[in-house]
Design a protein that fits this description.
- This protein is α/β, with parallel strands linked by helices.
- It has two domains: about 210 residues, Glucose-6-phosphate isomerase like protein, domain 1 (Rossmann fold); about 70 residues, Orthogonal Bundle (Helicase, Ruva Protein, domain 3), CATH 1.10.8.
- The protein is about 45% helix and about 10% strand.
- The chain contains eleven helices and five strands.
- It has a five-stranded parallel beta sheet with strand order 2-1-3-4-5, with helices on both faces.
- Helix 3 links the parallel strand 1 and strand 2.
Length: about 300
């Protein structure tokens, strides 16, 4: 079908006014006349579209989980690349991985146009340089076993597109996340995740629905990969980093819930395992000392369930 006859005509990057993410929402034309309660109700109705978008993107999301899992298992890294809100969401998801899954900080990284200062101070002008996105990829010495996820609500951000192009040149797996249809803004990427939630209630403010659906997608991607990598047992984060009082309490509750131990015995076990919940569980449930438990986990790639069920 010719591009001119598609449901969503391709967008000239210099004229983004036709992007779905930039259009005015007909359901919020009287936004400035609504009461506070009416505003809440309207936002609630509109946010239902994020769930529909995630459901429609289930297949490429699953493919992204598989790609990230394979890459991380092979010694690769996962990168999120974005600008503005999209970049901040990527950095946030990356930053949550070490405390939740006890991953090294460089395993999942967030790259944002403008660097760290852009997290707290708007620097949206820096998103317009594709070469900066490519340079960010080059600075990380990207390898073929790495995965790069480009995040851009409108799909046209040069910084993100430059990073994706550079990643492809280096042989890395590329994932693209955007909130506009592919036939409106196309890109060459291995996995193309589209989350079209429609125009925002406040026209062009993609920190709203687009931001929400992007956060949902990143939650699914990173958590799904960590589950597949064996960092979860049942629905418990058994690789949680025990670095403060709250997390030690969580670790003790996990041990108590998954064993027959009381809190005092769980605390003793946790100390014997050097504050490693998964190792503590392997020791108790497998009736092993710390060294033997660690060796068995290592033989099974850190998968506690496999290590317990195979018994070898």
């Amino acid at each position: 079908m010719p591009a001119s006859s598609s449901a969503h005509p391709p967008v000239d990057p210099a004229d983004r006014g036709h992007l779905l993410t930039e259009q005015a929402n007909p359901r919020s034309t009287d936004l400035d006349r609504l009461s506070s309660l009416e505003l809440v109700d309207l936002f609630n109705r509109e946010d239902q579209r994020t769930l529909e978008a995630i459901a429609a993107a289930r297949a490429p999301l699953a493919a992204a989980i598989d790609a990230a899992t394979a890459a991380l298992a092979a010694g690769g890294r996962l990168f999120y690349v974005g600008a503005g809100t999209s970049g901040r969401l990527g950095v946030l998801d990356a930053a949550e991985c070490p405390p939740t899954f006890c991953t090294p900080p460089d395993l999942v990284q967030g790259l944002i146009a403008g660097g760290a200062s852009a997290l707290v101070k708007s620097s949206e002008g820096l998103e317009d340089v594709a070469e900066d996105g490519a340079a960010a990829i080059a600075d990380r010495n990207l390898q073929p076993q790495d995965v790069v996820v480009g995040i851009t609500a409108g799909g046209t951000t040069p910084y993100v597109r430059g990073a994706i192009a550079a990643a492809r040149q280096r042989g890395a797996t590329t994932v693209f996340i955007a909130c506009v249809p592919a036939d409106q803004v196309a890109i060459e990427a291995d996995i193309d995740i589209r989350l079209p939630v429609g125009p925002e209630l406040l026209a062009g403010s993609t920190r709203l629905k687009a931001g929400t659906v992007t956060k949902m997608a990143l939650n699914i991607l990173s958590t799904g990969a960590m589950v597949r990598l064996g960092k979860v047992y049942g629905n418990r984060m058994v690789d949680v980093a025990v670095t403060n009082t709250k997390l030690r309490d969580r670790a003790l509750r996990i041990l108590c819930d998954l064993t027959d131990l009381d809190r005092a015995a769980a605390a003793t076990l946790l100390d014997r395992s050097h504050q490693q919940v998964k190792l503590a569980l392997m020791m108790h449930l497998g009736n092993l000392e710390a060294e033997a438990a660690a060796e068995r986990l290592a033989r099974h790639g850190g998968h506690l369930r496999q290590a317990l069920e195979t018994g070898g």
